[in-house]
What does this fold into?
Amino acid sequence: MIVTAALASYAIATENGRFWLRDPSGKLFWSLGVCCTGSGENSVNPKNPGYSGKALYGSETAWSKVAKDQFAGFNTLGGWSDQQFFPGMPFTPVLHLGAYAKAPYNDLFDPANIAIMDNAAKDQITKLRNQPGLVGYFSDNELGWWRESLFTSYLGLPPTAAGKRAIVAFLRRHYKSDFNRFKREWVTTKSDFEDLDGTVRLKPGTSGMLAVKGWQTALTTHYYRLMRDLIGKYDPKRLVLGDRYCQFYYLNVARSARPYVDVISTNLGADWNNGDISHFFLDSLRRESGKPVLITEFYMAANENRSGNKNSSGGFPVVETQVERAAAVNRYLHQISSRPYVIGAHWFQFYDEPTYGRADGENYNMGLVDIHGEPYSELIATFRGTDWNQVHRQSNIDPGGKIPEIPAESTPSLRGWNKAAARVPGKGEVFADLYLSQQKQTLYIGLYAMDFIDEKIYSNAKLPADDRLRLKLSLNGKVAEIRFGGPEPTTAQGAKAEVVSYRGGIRHELILKWPYPVTGPVKVIGELQSHGRAETMTWNATVK
It folds into this structure.
């Protein structure tokens, strides 16, 4: 067994090729946690009823006795939990250090903002660092590392701002101090790097997106170094657990974190409401960061619930019944815990959200219990009914490389596909999964890709045709090129590939019908470029 931290604290350990958390006694465990484990609101708002342990049970102490029974089967307190009622239980606080300075859009290089983060670290860590059960610290939660807007925002800072000086210095290096090279890729009325502001716009068909990506790398490297220094200044013994990505990340941002975190963390719901997840998301996160992965929020909601939640604010998987909810969570957990580099997953959250939603409008059936304190028995049985340590210990991922059959009703969506078997392994900057399936000897191609498009970086705030995502495929020598993303219709040229369906957003789901019968092995050669050609991945495999 290999251990990567001092014995007196929680640590990361590896055993038989699998990563684990290890407690101070030396015991290995897969972290199954719950976020927001607390007594909720002080009282019930009759206009928008929510969970209140004090109102239900008379006091927080009385609440904690009930909650401990409902919490049985879990071994970690996730973010924003009241650890004082669970003495000795492993807990993982969220410090929100960058958020105190409104990072990353406020100047992260400004000494005044760094001082704000330093004070926040000192105030929180000194109160926590000697508590038993402290695993480590999340520096933040779901910071907005959106590359295009960060580029124009920092260019829009005042000339004397530290962040403005940093991005100007970066652009001088990137363009070798040649402003004419910059102007070949950018629309601007300015005549020198120092005069640039947030009005610059990208010229279509150029390599300017590489400059945007490069600045994002410089900024996030600065952030992770700063967070490591601030946490280490006040508690050098604990694990640095990352900043909890928002179900999306950029490959280069995860790469920036690599030297500065002990764990890479992300919030991640199921990609499909049956509990399935993509392969690339976690695999690439592990590969780019070089660190074990912790799922810091996962969720599944049902329209059948006792809190009156409508599940209508968008962004989370929803099923109809509590039985379906429990089955989807079970499927999700088996897929997550089977990854040898995933060290745990934390459910969001202990109780349902208020009947008519939180202040931000989120209104989901997220809870282990409803707002009346009654447990969702099917869901809790799912968590308790399996030894997740054992599932992790026996982890084995299907490598794919064969062409399975798909049911007739599943062609418009990847939900029903046997994606583990259908996946064709990719290479390079892997930000997508490619799947091959067949139905009555007809070949279908599925693509599931991650790419956030901010069209405001262009002069007319519209993604140009030349800068759309581009998938080029050769199957047994027949070649097709597909363009997708942005407001224009998806197009396919070359071989007679038919677009069956396309769904955009942060995740892009594309299904093609390939009108050639499957008569033997399929030689797959392909290339996928993200919008503006910032990332490129390839495929070269023979699938039987």
